[in-house]
Amino acid sequence: xxxxxxxxxxxxxxxxxxxxxxxxxxxxxxxxxxxxxxxxxxxxxxxxxxxxxxxxxxxxxxxxxxxxxxxxxxxxxxxxxxxxxxxxxxxxxxxxxxxx
Length: 100
Description:
By secondary structure, the chain is mainly β. The chain has no helices and seven strands. The chain has one domain (2-90). The chain is globular.
């Protein structure tokens, strides 16, 4: 069965969701917090996927899988550029974010 799920996007978040879930959009939710909405098949097994956002001017690691979208978060007037990232064991260290 298909369903739309929403996840809050902390700076760096790992979520368990059904395999092959389709990203529909990223934007600020009604509270002004960055969030991601996905179309999921609830009959599929779950997998972990990792999302991370970066401020404008921050270094983006080469390991970033793909750009998802940009969120204008009303809660603190921040701009978050969201990327899907590999699992932690595949990552190299990234310096602290800078810019806005």
